[in-house]
Amino acid sequence: MTKVTMTVNGKAVCGEVEGRTLLVQFLRERLGLTGTHVGCDTSQCGACVVHVDGRAVKSCTMLALEAEGAEVTTIEGMADADGGLSSLQQAFQDHHGLQCGFCTPGMVMSAAALLAENPRPSEAEIRGYLSGNICRCTGYHNIVKAIMAASGQDVSAIAAE
Amino acid sequence: MYSVEFDRPATLEAALAGLKAEDAQALSGGQTLIPTLKQRLAQPSKLVSLTAIPSLQGICVADDGMLCIGATTTHATVAAEAGAHYPALARLAAQIGDPAVRNRGTIGGSLANNDPSACYPAAVLASGALIRTNARDIAADDYFEGMFATALQEGEIITEIRFPIPEAAAYMKFAQPASRFALVGVFVAKTAGGVRVAVTGASEEGVFRWGAAEEALSADFSAGAIAGLSLPADDMIDDLHGTPDYRAHLVKVMTGRAVSAAQ
Ligand SMILES: Cc1cc2nc3c(=O)[nH]c(=O)nc-3n(C[C@H](O)[C@H](O)[C@H](O)COP(=O)(O)OP(=O)(O)OC[C@H]3O[C@@H](n4cnc5c(N)ncnc54)[C@H](O)[C@@H]3O)c2cc1C
Ligand code: FES
Ligand code: FES
């Protein structure tokens, strides 16, 4: 076992982990942050996306020890300071960007990373950016709509799906 | 995943020493190796991470005009920073996998792995780049030795890739939509010395140069110049995504598109 230290959602955390411990295992099983989901465990679906030093990564495809010293943000860190939904999360609710909700933590984390890079993305840019996030329920249209709305763009002309 | 020791040294020397242990293996972005370990297709005793070694990171232009990319530079960094010098290479990097894969995956890892459907091998071979390791420089023409096989020796670490910058170049990828790897990808590079065409995704032998197209395009750099050519389907990959004939046909189509895009 090796000691790992990182900042998760603004709090310094540490723990003893094995070489093979994945970042997602550390977050879910050690820290109890079960908002980050494991959909495929084969690097395909994006349900496990978190931010490491501000960048979206698949936490099922990164070892916990690789995050030594890093700033990690999970879906639990996305709420506003008062504990309410952030405007991005609220947009997912308002525009029905989720159904079962399993993919949603990864979708929100990818969307947040996109908006940090590109504050007013086009529909094509959103779809391109979400190419590593799979949703089995929504058909994606309302996810795209939610992200456009969260970036302050008019979505009234986009048909309800 | 089997139990494995983990080490993340801060210098190349320490990484080379770490890789001397029996069955030790280098870890870069982990976007290929971690899935492989989960499937228990590899069982290293120890992983030596290269991601904390500053000398292996970053992009610069050397005095001789070569674009030098450190082995652990991520696809996202190449996409964001190589464009000013070598736009076709930056565009290739921007099409690898998805954003989260690009934020971890590295050029050195891709080249060491030499997946027959990977994108970078086509750029390296078409550009006539140099693969620099801790021990030597390897010319692209001597580096790729077939599917998942390279000239790298046990414990040898790629430190940098050095690209001569062509006059014109483009990469055209026909993506396999589920994996996002290349079903067929073609990189065309035009230099003062002639045109080089490298094909990935198509052959059982991994990335290869299409000599007949190079000759035709060196005489006339236009998509029409390859109209009369055809590629034998004998060594092409046959899987549920495409037959050998389909792949052979796609190589020609993608070569034509790459030439048009490079104009
Ligand atoms: C969903 C998904 C989609 C993808 N799509 C594409 C795609 O479209 N195109 C594409 O080309 N690739 C694609 N990839 C693969 C991706 O580009 C990987 O990042 C890359 O193949 C391996 O790089 P890595 O840094 O992750 O290497 P790792 O997984 O860490 O290592 C791979 C291998 O290289 C060795 N190695 C790593 N670095 C070095 C070094 N410096 N010297 C010597 N040996 C080294 C390791 O020991 C290991 O054997 C995809 C991957 C995923 C998960
Ligand atoms: S659980 Fe990580 S990509 Fe699916
Ligand atoms: S809402 Fe069910 S998988 Fe996306």
TrEMBL record, chain A:
GO molecular function, one term: oxidoreductase activity
Keyword Amino-acid biosynthesis: no
Domain 2Fe-2S ferredoxin-type, residue spans: 2-78
Pfam families: Fer2, Fer2_2
Swiss-Prot/TrEMBL keywords: 2Fe-2S, Iron, Iron-sulfur, Metal-binding, Oxidoreductase
Name of the protein this chain belongs to: Carbon-monoxide dehydrogenase small subunit
Organism: Rhodovulum bhavnagarense
TrEMBL record, chain B:
Organism: Rhodovulum bhavnagarense
Protein name (database record): Carbon-monoxide dehydrogenase medium subunit
Classification via SUPFAM superfamilies: CO dehydrogenase flavoprotein C-terminal domain-like, FAD-binding/transporter-associated domain-like
Taxonomic placement: Bacteria, Pseudomonadati, Pseudomonadota, Alphaproteobacteria, Rhodobacterales
Domain of life, source organism: Bacteria
Leader sequence residues: none
Keyword line: FAD, Flavoprotein, Oxidoreductase
Domain FAD-binding PCMH-type, chain residue ranges per copy: 1-168
GO molecular function: FAD binding; oxidoreductase activity
